[in-house]
Request: fold
Amino acid sequence: MKDLSSWGLIIGVTIGVVIGVLLAVGALFCIRFRKKHAQIRFSSSRRASTIPMRVNGVDSSSVLSDSTMDQESPKHPETEADGSSFWIEGTKRKNLVSVSGIPKYFYKDLQKATRNFTTLIGQGAFGPVYKAQMPTGETVAVKVLATNSKQGEKEFQTEVLLLGRLHHRNLVNLVGYCAEKGQHILIYVYMTNGSLASHLYSEEHEALRWDLRVNIALDVARGLEYLHDGAVPPVVHRDIKSANILLDHSMRARVADFGLSREEMVSHQASNIRGTLGYLDPEYVSSRSFTKKSDVYSFGVLLFELIAARNPQQGLMEYVELATINAEGRVGWEEIADPRLDGVFDISELNDVAALAYKCINRLSKKRPSMRVVVQALSQILKTSHRKHHSRRWLPITVEEESLDIELSEHQSSVSGHQREESIDSVSDLPDV
Ligand SMILES: Nc1ncnc2c1ncn2[C@@H]1O[C@H](COP(=O)(O)OP(=O)(O)OP(=O)(O)O)[C@@H](O)[C@H]1O
Reply:
């Protein structure tokens, strides 16, 4: 009897253990299945919201000619962990982030911020641009896509997708967009000092000092270098011109309007040619194939614009060609210097910048330097200028000279703070023309 009850106990315990093990295995299986299911759901939603066009240009950027430190445009202090800014909190559409990670905004809030679209800054080929005062006090530029433009639809999609992945301190970064009520709107960082063109050609502004012009050239070169060599895949701007260079409160320059493909920009004289007359690479015009070197050509024209303050659509290049008869592209460029400079510039520095510009506008694209080499050359020019100013400190100088010197060195140190050691010594080391 005792034997029988102990057998019963053993059998009972064994059955209990078996059931327990089966329950544990079942529970484990359930947990693993749920985890896996959740993973599949997560990755498929990520796939749906991520367009595999490019990885973020910043994360994937290769080492550029100047330091990659602080390469990204300055982050707003109130930047969320996911990288999207919430400086227009309350205006930004809640829980809605676009496919490109650029925050989406309500139309009615933008309407309010632009006082019902009455704060017009200017009108571009893309549509009108308004200044907007956000509830947080932040000022932004709001570009409303012309609704009657078919091409505008494409531009809008291209720009939001592309710009969402491009960030650099020398680019006019996109900070938001709105796609509502048939309207397509792009929101950009506001550039207080307007376009470079307005500073070169409008009497409303004081003449730009020479040192500022060289700093602006370097800023633009860095922005372009990032587009060419830092972004993955590379971006060719296609419309580098002084109207597309915008200046912030401290006169630092940023490249605007990249990623646009406007039909309105098509020259009326040569069909299917995109860009702006006066800046167009002649090789592109004949071959119809636009390359990074076509941007380099337009940048060369921009450098001459900075030197001479002459509009490329009003004979700048003819003026340059005349100057080369004597200068052979190396010296004597001071003849074409902007009269508003009043002769206040270092002649050898101006000749170096002009010689660089001349190499950029070589008719043969393969003889033009890359933007990386251009950045190196301009950094070198600025470095030499900075050194000259420092060595002059040992000579007796006037009070005015001293204050100008301090101002310049402050500006230069903010520029050179993120430069790496250059690998070329002078402009003459560039590919020969
Ligand atoms: N982010 C910005 N901050 C301040 N002003 C801006 C900004 N973006 C554009 N603007 C100004 O708005 C006006 C229109 O600019 P937009 O870029 O649309 O055209 P554009 O460059 O003048 O001409 P196009 O479209 O033919 O290239 C210009 O005066 C420009 O300086």
About this structure: Confidence is low (pLDDT under 50) at residues 33-63, 66-95, 261-270, 397-429. DSSP finds eleven helices and nine strands in the chain.
